[in-house]
Amino acid sequence: MSYTITTILCQSFLCECIGCDIVSGRIVPPGGMIAESEHFILHQDPEVPIRAFFIVASKAHIQSMDQMSVAEARECFDLVYQARKLQSRLGDISEVLVIQEERSEHFHLWLLPRYAWMDELFANSLTTVREMLKYAREHRCNEDDIKEILETVKRSRELWRLA
């Protein structure tokens, strides 16, 4: 089933699978890829304008962690670990929520950072995540926030190379 996504850069794409479209290069995440390993990629979330909201996604079209080999699962966790360490180096993130739900057609993990502005508006709970993402789409998709996101992606790529 096809669906349309609109990125934070106001680009619209008709997708069958956003994960496959990103892996193939048909959709380029804001600022481009941050890092990749043999089986996984790391990038900024393309749809939600939250700085350093990182996605770790499988290059293969799989839905669940249990479809990975042990070596692939270790590789995935290593990338998640390195991405979380990177977020710590970016500053002003109070904590990170790691989320993976198997309802998605393409395996990916969210590394959703928490900032002071979120603490002011939302309870620190899983139950407020959707509301927080909606708020970001409606109130933080402006020129200054997008510029900051793109600069963070660039800096993240540079820090990754130095690690």
Average the pLDDT over all residues and give the rounded result: 96
Distance between the termini: 40 Å
Name the structural class.
Answer: alpha+beta
Topology order in helix (H) and strand (E) letters:
EEHEEEHEEHHH
Helix content estimate:
25-40%
Global Rg: 15 Å
The main sheet comes to: 5 strands, antiparallel
- Please tell me the total number of domains: 1
State the total count of DSSP E strands.
Answer: 7
Can you tag this structure with a few keywords?
single chain; 163 residues; alpha+beta; HIT family, subunit A; 5-stranded antiparallel β-sheet; two-stranded antiparallel sheet; globular
How would you summarize what this structure contains?
The chain has a single domain, classed as HIT-like (HIT family, subunit A, 2-Layer Sandwich). 40% of the residues lie in helices and 20% in strands.
